[in-house]
Amino acid sequence: MNTNPKADWFFNKDDKWQEEVNKLRVIALDCGLNEELKWGCPCYTLKKDNIVLIHVFKEYCALLFFKGALLNDADGILVQQTENVQSARQMRFTGLMEIVDKEVTIKAYIHEAIEVEKAGLKVEMKKTTEFAMAEEFKYKLDHIPALKTAFEALTPGRQRGYLLYFAAAKQAKTREARIEKYIPQILDGKGLED
């Protein structure tokens, strides 16, 4: 079992979920995966390919399966965080005994995720054009050629980020304000988080 010193701080914090995440660490390492630190979380990989990640939330801790949408999920325990998450699925836990009781199942899911990765399977992602576009943004793109050109030059991920963010606002006024705020950033070729 090879722990990664870079990830130790995550497991040594005085946190609500420490016993649980330490148990999940042992389980992931028992499955023959390498431990890395990515996005501030322990990530378990096979030949540099992400298999599963441990993360914590206020109400639960979880294993995030990067290609969870491709897993059989015979027990129906994988959760899609939001409707916009296409590939990843979570296995959530609210206590140490739950993890201990499900250890065999957890390992079976991890081993299936490893086999999915070894087989080179890929999740069929929705194309950017399949995402809803706020009418207010469509109007801007139709009337500002430079904005349309700049938006189309963005990476698909950045495009999706904007489309989801603009469409998430319930009121037209809010959508318009968001669009106005980010026009300069789009024109500069930047994403929401840049």
Q: Work out the helix count.
A: 8
Strand content: 15-25%
Order of helices and strands: HHEEEEEEHHHHHH
Note the overall shape: elongated
* Widest β-sheet, arrangement of strands: 1-2-3-4-6-5
Number of strands: 6
Compute the CA-based radius of gyration: 20 Å
Helix content: 40-55%
Mean pLDDT, all residues: 91
Low-confidence sequence ranges? none
Q: Secondary-structure map with pairings?
A:
Blueprint: H1 8-12, H2 18-30, E1 34-38, E2 41-46, E3 49-56, E4 61-65, E5 78-79, E6 89-93, H3 96-101, H4 103-118, H5 135-143, H6 145-153, H7 156-168, H8 172-187
Helix pairs in contact: 5-6, 7-8
What does this structure look like?
By secondary structure, the protein is an alpha+beta fold. The protein is built from 8 helices and 6 strands. It has a 6-stranded antiparallel β-sheet with strand order 1-2-3-4-6-5. Helix 5 (135-143) packs across helix 6 (145-153) and helix 7 packs antiparallel against helix 8. The longest helix is centred in the middle third of the chain and has 16 residues, at 103-118. It is elongated, with a radius of gyration of 20 Å. The relative contact order is 0.10. The mean pLDDT is 91.
